[in-house]
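Task card 7
Instruction: Convert sequence to structure tokens.
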Amino acid sequence: MSSSPRIIAIVPCHNEEAAIAKVVTDLHETIPGIDVFVYDNCSTDRTAQAAAEAGAHVRYETEKGKGNVVRRAFADLDADIYLLIDGDDTYDVADAPAMIDTLLAGPFDHVLGVRRQVSETAYRSGHESGNKFFNTMVSFAFRREVTDMLSGYRVFSQRFVKSFPALSREFEIETELTIHAVNARVPQTEVEVGFRDRAEGTESKLRTYHDGFRILRIFSQLLFHERPFLVTSIFSILLATLGLVFGLPVVAEYFQTGMVPRFPTAFLASALFILAGVFLLMGVLLNGQVMMRREGSRLFYLRLPAPPYGVKSPRRQPSVERFNIDVNRGA
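Output:
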């Protein structure tokens, strides 16, 4: 590995003509030698032209959605370090060198930029509370504390990128990235980054309720996919509880009279207990398949090189010391 690792920035864009040139320029000025790849995702304005004029490599993804862009970029691009940042100029590019240095100093495979508002209106109404809700759910379900799972500002190693399946289509890609990181137990940490209002003349592509339900759906799918025993155990407990509610009075009556006069209730209670056992057995079998899949994924992950330890990222200005607010080291 060379002393100067190759660093690329992936910038998904949809109608960001007013902001993209500044993002590209700031990236080149902050991290000399970085290759900036702007992916134009069905824009109807001059986003692609503005990015090219600012010095970015412009590529196109015709399947609309940020998840489609990330999947395409992860498949197409080869580098030692990948920086993912939005093209709306809401994230402070000046924090990028600190994030890259943190990844290399670990070395880590994933550095999450935890948003710190530099203006009171940076978060849209409802987004902050929704983000906290999803953070709590993921932290509980996957037993790893997550501070800002919906952040679009991240730094990855090559082995993270090439072992990430990227199944999402739209803004739920951040959820998939977060769950992959915590569930695979890759070495990761979090760094505070500045987060500000969108550039004047641009508008957010997020739809609070629509995207919130999409995130909830992908979270439910990933939860069943990654922790099936937890999901089936919950259903098994609920069915067994209902079976007890219906069955205990029948059993008590049998011990008192020696008869079972309520056969339908007895059959219902028996069926509920049988279903509870089926769900529990299904969870055990699915959990075995998950373990085999994780072993295969882990072996593929280990085939790829780790980030170069102790190498500093190139920069034009001295970095400001940042506070790492959480570290989850993987096995």
